[in-house]
Write the structure tokens for this entry.
Amino acid sequence: MDKLLLDLPEFQPGWVWLVGGGPGDAGLLTLYALHALRSADVLVYDALVGEDILKMARPDCLLEYAGKRGGKPSPKQTDISQRLVQLAREGKRVLRLKGGDPFVFGRGGEEALTLVEAKVPFRIVPGISSGIGGLAYAGIPVTHRECNSAVTFLTGHNANGIVPDNINWAGIAQGSPVIVIYMAIKHLGEIAARLMENGRLPDEPVGIVSKASTPQQEVLETTLGSCVQDVETSGIQPPALVVVGEVVRLRSGLDWLGAINGRILDSDPLGHRKAPEKTASA
């Protein structure tokens, strides 16, 4: 491992690396991300970056929290972006570490454009988005040949904290077999209503994955018509992903974490009817 890391690009003073930390499990970090953690002078990290990942930073690395959580006091995005510029201009190796992927609902583009404007050199290091990796840890694939050939990724709220009003709900409801929604718990009732108003059925499977890929992961299997009540009853909490579509049924066969803990998996989760065996004619 150490020999392999020697061949990675140098993290130079005055640079900012915008790095995706993956959905939560430290084992899902990329080699570039680990290299950055071992090299950075300053680590500016998000709320969804776990302690086990932070512990991988260089012992003398300065840790700065810049997490944004819905409904809670959070630093302004402009302040975070300008802080990156300031630290880089001080000659620091600045690691901006984000949960998931920095370019998937992670404001990485906004921060990178601020660096461009300030003429600060930077590198983008993609990470495993929680909408893919987090669902995989729940045993829910975002695509499956027998269920869907398209998937749509949405955010549950816009910059003002409300359900985005520029989404073509009719087009998505009618055209996307699988819908993955980030940050949707707060507005789940409105989102479910819009989907059903535009043709999705109340009994369509819905999966809700909280704290995906961490030891605290919880998964709720429900339906579009019942999801709001079931979330309230279960007490499942954000951060959580919501996935709508037939792929949720596959969890009964693909819940590999459950299998490790003794769950018996269903070899035919979609309920295929087996053709009768042919018998030789007399």
